[in-house]
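Exam review. A common question shows you a sequence with its structure tokens and asks you to describe the fold in words. Practice with the pair below. Do the first one on your own.
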Amino acid sequence: MGMELSPRLAHIKPSSTLKIASLAKQLKAEGKKVVDFSVGEPDFDTPDPVKKAAIEALQKGFTKYTPPAGIPDLKTAIIDKLKRENNLTYTPKQIIVTSGAKQAIFSALFAILGETDEVLISAPYWVSYPEMVSLAGAKPVIMTTAEQEGFKLTPQLLQKSITKNTKALILNYPSNPAGVMYTKQELESLSEVLKKHSLYVISDEIYEKIVFDGRSFTSFGSLKDMHEKTITINGVSKSFSMTGFRIGYIAAPEKVASACETIQSQTTSCATSFCQKAAVAAFTLNDEWFAFVRKTFELRRERIYNGLSRIKKISVHKPEGAFYVFCNIGKTGMNGNQFCERLLQEECVAAVPGDGFGYADYMRLSFATSDEQIDEGIVRIERFINREHRKPRA
């Protein structure tokens, strides 16, 4: 018995998105022309001022440990950003810089959860939320939403799901995988339910800049009476095309932030020093950069949505933000795993099966890729479905 692995890992699945991305890279290495819709990262380069700041920090020898919670000038930049753009007021003690937003969520969950606690997660959900809750020793409680209702969490479903053991709700908008956005009024309706209960809201706002059709983004913590209940998670990966820099942050009530700092001091020690300097430069970029990001993804959304909508046997949910489309492929007679596995083998198109997001008959496609790749991918998906449809049945 002494050589067994931790029982916490018994029900933990590896990230399906990273698994498919790895298989796609393997096929590319073999010389195959893969259309990769798997990976959730912008395909354009990190802005030059950001790269220059990282290089300058390296050249100046800024390569040592930093304070566990982050360097003061990055904390200041984050505080200024949250005040200016999100109507959120924080002190330096309430900000923790982390090695990516993923680590920020992980630390926040470890800081607040006990073994009898439950965490509410709206499905379809990002693949890592339930696994992180389980790793923290708590119980993920999935709230299944309907596509005909825009995959949105309703106040009624939220109220029905809260029990005496509920410790937190994880909200993500615009969401991965379905690109779901909430209006300020919809968020206020959810907050009315939450006001009656003592629980945290972990608001994952990593895609806040990638919203379409002129929609505006509202931070959950800026709503009336929600500031002290909300743990805001964000980072530089998606908005600034800095996925490999691994810089995220937590903005939270001071006792939560303090606990996260303790966890970080005993795990990663601190986020990478020169990447923190690069993040400071990112927060100085003007709105021109974000306008470019939004416009690029909005045009790609139209391209992939219109292309996929013409294919029989799949239906596509039109995203309101982020850079993913969530497609129902149930009418093909295959579930998401079967469909995506064969699509990769037979057409060299990498897509992520929906079961990792809580919906077995779906797949997720990232449109963070070129117009040419989008067009070619649509051609291959249609060819695959048509060929499958024409096969004689036994």
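Now try the second one, then compare your answer with the model answer below.
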Amino acid sequence: MEYYTDEIKNPQEARNVQAFLDMISYAEGTDRYGDENGYNVIVGGQLFHDYSDHPNTLVDLPRYGIKSTAAGRYQILHRYWVHYKKQLDLPDFSPASQDMYAIQQFKERRACEDIKKGRVETAITKVSNIWASLPGAGYGQREVKMQELVNKWKEFGGKEITS
């Protein structure tokens, strides 16, 4: 995951970005499956093993009354993946490509500086409409409480930078 930390000179800022990515995986529940850090999880807990492209598997989730193609560590929907794969010139659905997708979401929501500086609650609020598991997302799915996310972010190495 050096592709994005190389451009971040402050080591704590790089840790904050990684901790935020890990926190999203925790919230989405992908960190509980398989042995590939959640990068190969299909919504509902199935696993895939071919990273050449998004698996585009439609899964029926009657508990939530939806069908979804969410896959990967950040539960990326296929329809969005197609757009961002082209926009970012991503070669595959590898962990590096999935992380680049997530970081692009941070950039588009103007959350990058908040994440790097450790203003985690502000950052979560800015990206909450992207991930159904974040507080205030409003998708009718399980939302993880803000304080639980802040605690996990800290556990994963996140720390506020005050200067």
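Model answer, second protein: The domain at 8-155 is CATH 1.10.530.10 (Lysozyme). The two ends are 26 Å apart (CA to CA). Full marks require stating both points clearly.
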